[in-house]
Design a protein that fits this description.
Elements (H helix, E strand, L loop, with lengths): L1 E5 L3 H12 L3 E6 L5 H9 L3 E5 H7 L2 E4 L6 H8 L6 E4 L14 H9 L2 E4 L6 H5 L2 E4 L2 E4 L1 E5 L3 H14 L2 E6 L4 H17 L14
Parallel strand pairs: 1-2, 1-4, 2-3, 4-5, 5-6, 9-10
Antiparallel strand pairs: 7-8
Length: about 210
């Protein structure tokens, strides 16, 4: 796939690296492609390129948004009409919202008219860098969750989650986006506030 990742911090950088390793064509969308930290990121990851947000989003079929949630409404206005493209929202609005919208997902959906999926928001970048955990002598994949009512966008997000190395579960439609963001709040509480360390992940067990 041709993927534009907007944001190259912990989460965006980890996802970009993993997808490049999996054989996807990855472009970082940035307001300033000459920033020193972006230059350093590209030098350390020669399989990834960068372009302006407008050009990267126009040139790629899949756009993954990993910036802070409070900045998403302004970003969505900048992106404009993305009808026909797939946008994956990896943000969380559990602490700060992109006013006047309740979530980044809502802002992106209403302002860009893209096909939307919610994914890559429920755990930390450590698990995106390495979603495998040793359990009883074997390696077990951490779980990722995807929400949204657009079947095509959800299928793409699911495949990209698997390409990173996650098991991926369908969390429901658009109406479950805010509940999925609460999963992130639980992970933060357990990993940091309860002192379990950020190298922890969720795993669904079935009998």
């Amino acid at each position: 796939m041709n993927i534009c990742v907007i944001g190259y911090g912990n989460v965006g950088g980890a996802l970009a690296r993993q997808w490049a390793k999996a054989g996807h064509t990855v472009t970082i969308g940035a307001r300033n492609v000459a920033k020193p930290d972006l230059t350093a990121f590209l030098q350390n990851n020669p399989g990834i390129k960068a372009d302006t947000i407008a050009q990267a989003s126009a040139a790629n079929d899949v756009i993954v948004v990993t910036i802070p949630a409070q900045a998403v409404a302004e970003l969505a206005k900048e992106l404009g009409d993305l009808s026909g493209k797939i946008v994956i929202d990896a943000t969380n609005s559990v602490f700060m919202r992109p006013e006047p919208y309740r979530t980044g997902f809502e802002a992106l959906q209403k302002l860009t008219k893209a096909k939307m999926a919610k994914c890559f928001n429920s755990t930390g970048a450590e698990n995106m860098n390495n979603p495998l955990y040793p359990v009883n002598g074997s390696m077990v994949q951490a779980d990722m969750f995807v929400a949204g009512s657009d079947a095509e966008a959800k299928a793409v997000a699911t495949q990209l989650a698997k390409d990173v190395g996650f098991d991926c579960y369908d969390f429901g439609g658009d109406e479950q986006v805010e509940l999925l963001e609460e999963v992130c709040r639980i992970w933060i509480h357990l990993a940091m506030k309860q002192g379990n360390d950020r190298n922890m992940a969720f795993k669904i067990l079935k009998r």
